[in-house]
Amino acid sequence: MSIPAFGLGTFRLQGQVVIDSVRTGLELGYRVIDTAQIYENEAEVGQAIAASGIAREELFITSKIWVANFARDRLIDSLRESLRKLRTDYLDLTLIHWPSPEDQVPVQEFMGALLEAKRLGLTRQIGVSNFTVDLMQQAIAAIGAEHIATNQIELHPYLQNRTVVGFAQSQGIQITSYMTLAYGEVLKDPAIQQIAGRLRATPAQVTLAWAMQMGYAVIPSSTKRANLESNLKACGLTLSEADMQLIASLDRGHRLTSPKGIAPDWD
């Protein structure tokens, strides 16, 4: 199984805002929804999905286990609670959201518990998020690379994370890019605007198309119907090799997310 290339993120969206975003996304044709325990919006996401009437098998739902639930006796119970909130019997993908702070719970323990959740049928696929090369190596040693579907990482034109990407791909682990638009920063970039003008596309479409053309899955979010609809059109956009090389040149190691006490020592 593989990770769908294009989905809808729900980070920072709560209450009626996330209900409206997911409802609109589903109306427009989105079928991949990404949430997390720490987003505190799983129940609202589940409400919007249930109200849509779309058959469960048509959807791909991802959630992420928060660091407080990594212990073997907590992880599966917390996943069952996520399923209850999301009103589903299983997830398509369950991720470890961040590495355990100060290695309080060993990688082997939480990856083993996550693999057990998969064997119990609570999730179809499992993976990690915000993992460095060293952490991926530990996860692979614990359960085998064949069980790790993806590493979801901050990745955008200004932070291309090539060391992590290269190692993941060498192990058959797909990359999911979050914050692909860098909170909108890259949309103002002259190079991306130049490509967008020539292709009669938006800078967001160009950036999302770049990431998908690199082989990454993307999960952009928006609260505006026009943006949700526009972003979808990135799936039909193809960049030239010159365009791809130009965007490759924009990398400057500009990281936007690194929460103190949780973030690992980045590669």
Task: Please describe what this structure looks like.
It is a single chain. This protein has 267 residues and is α/β, with parallel strands linked by helices. 41% of the residues lie in helices and 14% in strands. The protein contains ten helices and eight strands. The protein has helices at residues 15-28, 42-52, 72-86, 107-119, 133-143, 162-170, 190-199, 203-213, 225-232, 241-248, and strands at 8-9, 32-34, 60-65, 91-96, 123-129, 148-154, 174-178, 217-218.
Strand content bin = 5-15%
CATH topology: TIM Barrel
Number of helices: 10
Number of domains: 1
The average pLDDT value, as a whole number, equals 98
Shape: globular
Tell me the total number of β-strands: 8
Radius of gyration: 18 Å
CATH class wording: Alpha Beta
CATH homologous superfamily (4th level) name: NADP-dependent oxidoreductase domain
Helix content: 40-55%
Give me the strand/helix succession: EHEHEHEHEHEHEHHEHH
The CATH architecture name reads Alpha-Beta Barrel
Strand order of the largest sheet: 1-2-3-4-5-6-7-8
**Poorly predicted sequence stretches spanning 5 or more consecutive residues:** none
How many angstroms separate the termini?
28 Å
**Biggest sheet architecture:** 8 strands, parallel
Helix-and-strand structural type:
alpha/beta
Task: Give the helix/strand layout.
Layout (H helix, E strand, L loop, with lengths): L7 E2 L5 H14 L3 E3 L7 H11 L7 E6 L6 H15 L4 E6 L10 H13 L3 E7 L3 H11 L4 E7 L7 H9 L3 E5 L11 H10 L3 H11 L3 E2 L6 H8 L8 H8 L19
Parallel strand pairs: 1-2, 2-3, 3-4, 4-5, 5-6, 6-7, 7-8
Helix pairs in contact: 1-2, 2-3, 3-4, 4-5, 7-8
